[in-house]
What we know:
about 200 residues, alpha/beta, DNA polymerase, domain 1, 2 domains, 5-stranded parallel β-sheet, 10 helices, 7 strands, elongated
Amino acid sequence: MAGRVDAVVFDLGRVLIGVDTGALAARLAAHTTRSAQDMLRTPEARALAEAYETGRTETDAFCRDMISALGLDLGPEDFARVWTGIFTRWPDMEALFAEVRARAAVAILSDTNPLHWRAIQALAPPLAAPDAVGLSYRIGACKPDPATYAAVVRALGAAPERCVFVDDLDANVRGARRAGMRAFRHTDARASRERLLDMLGDG
């Protein structure tokens, strides 16, 4: 599909910023009798995380319920500190984000929660204020639900076919295409830069 690109929509984790869930599990395991391998895979923990990421529970309740579900000897503030300590800045992707923004609108569409979004904004200021954001906890759904793509396109005020979506998961890329967007899977900064600059050169 060729034609003008008005906006580029980026996923956050493992696209614009590094995420280490293994380290999170290990740090939490230091405060319970559970193993790191089992830490975040229990049905109860997964359900609590999903509820938080889709805006069905508040931060205080999430922290309290996760502490209880995992049997952690942590208070809510300490749990929140561990929960948010999983991100690393990716300067190459921050640079690409800025380079793209000089040529088109940029947006973020992410399955995330209030604690993680605040942590990312503080850690990586270049990502803190895109032209539009679509966050699962505000939308009430996670990708590849059609509502997520519709929300960010609506926030951009752009036609779906003039938006490019970049994500590290094939399922989310396919969802964006079904929503009428152009989309591709992110593998590394160099490949994504080449592809985006080529697409932004159209028209």
